[in-house]
Amino acid sequence: MNVETHKCPNCGGPLLFDPKTQRFHCEYCFSSFTESEVTAFEQKMAENPQISDQQQSEKTAEGQDSRPEEASAPKMDVFLCPSCGAQIVTDATTAATYCYYCHNPVVLSGRLQGDFLPDAVLPFAVEKEKAVDKFLAWSKKKWFIPKDFFSKNQIEKMTGVYFPYWLVDAQIEGEMDAKGNVLRVWRIGEIEYTETKQFAIHRKGKLNFSDLIKTALSKNITQKMVTAVQPFPLDKAVPFRSQYLSGFQAEKRDIEIENLKENIEGDLKQYSKSLLKDSANGFTVITSENYRFNIEEQKNRYVLLPVWLLTYRNKRKNDKVYYYAMNGQTGKVSGILHLNKIKLALTAASLFTVLLLGLLAGGYFL
């Protein structure tokens, strides 16, 4: 497993991707680079290893089991930080993280190689400062939220995460047979007339679908939150480069496209059914529907999509976790906030008291 930190061509410090400028910045010498400049520098280092300063140990910590991962049970892996040599502990799907000692961004590039190499990545466009501002503006509109939800320690937990998804493009040949009724009602004098005409409906055509999104991570317990911040501007996705992960966390997929076959086919057929039926307009009612579908072509792409994520653990209530998510490109937010029931009860009691005093002053109970 390769463990790497993308380094500054000028001073060797760690590079971080800045969503605001779409460039890579060094926090030590304040240099700024484009993706092509970083890639060219790293290629030069690879071609001239004698001048590279990345000859640190990339092997796992002593005693780590190097056997293939077993799918039957979750497994934690231990790596050495290439900057300070500290141990980094991750689960099997983490592909980018931070060293908890020197805080340098670390990309576990070996987990994003071969079949697990993403086809594309949608870079963050919302930087953390803006994400925090949006979170505070959103959450402060909500009532009865615990004060510690806005604490500095809580806000600092906001993390930018690249989640793995499958994107599906497909072409379907669809066909529909049905019966359509057209009902006409009119009145002459006091007599009402009703006319019913019945038609045989046949629709056939090729239907094209693009960017059907399916999650590729089974442990994504925040799936509802992530789904709620869609859509993503997928036209802004770029060919994958590991540099874009620097400064963020990233997850590797653990759901293969074959495991989603029935789910994808079901969605495609349901969308096709709706389109075919919508094309048969002008009928009062459509009955006896019969559909036939054939998926003629399907293209699957593996992509990483950006999400700002914040969690709040309620220690007073069985450590229940609440989630807040933001689309890392559009800034769309979603979340479930914890309510302070004591504060809510006190407010309700205060309102009841004010109302009661008002009624007594008005003589309603005399």
SSE ordering: EEEHEEEEEHHEEHEEHEEEH
Q: How far apart lie the N and C ends? A: 82 Å
The rounded Rg comes to 28 Å
* Mean model confidence by pLDDT: 78
Shape assignment: elongated
Query: How many β-strand stretches?
Result: 15
Sheet-strand content, in percent, reads: 35-45%
Assembly context of the chains: single chain
Helix share of residues?
Answer: 10-25%
Pick out the low-confidence regions. 51-74
Number of continuous helical runs: 6
| Computed structural class | alpha+beta
Indicate the topology.
Layout: E1 15-18, E2 23-26, E3 32-33, H1 35-47, E4 76-80, E5 87-91, E6 94-98, E7 105-107, E8 120-121, H2 128-139, H3 152-155, E9 159-188, E10 191-215, H4 223-228, E11 238-239, E12 249-251, H5 261-279, E13 285-314, E14 320-327, E15 333-335, H6 341-361
Parallel strand pairs: 8-13, 9-12
Antiparallel strand pairs: 1-2, 2-3, 4-5, 6-7, 6-12, 8-11, 9-10, 9-13, 13-14, 14-15
Descriptive notes:
The protein has 366 residues and is of the alpha+beta class. It folds into three domains: 1-117, no CATH class; 166-297, no CATH class; 340-366. The chain has helices at residues 35-47, 128-139, 152-155, 223-228, 261-279, 341-361, and strands at residues 15-18, 23-26, 32-33, 76-80, 87-91, 94-98, 105-107, 120-121, 159-188, 191-215, 238-239, 249-251, 285-314, 320-327, 333-335. Strands 6, 7, 8, 9, 10, 11, 12, 13, 14 and 15 form a ten-stranded mixed β-sheet that branches. A hairpin with a 5-residue loop joins β14 (320-327) and β15 (333-335). The longest helix has 21 residues, at 341-361. It is elongated. The N and C termini lie far apart (82 Å). The relative contact order is 0.17. Mean pLDDT is 78; it is low at 51-74.
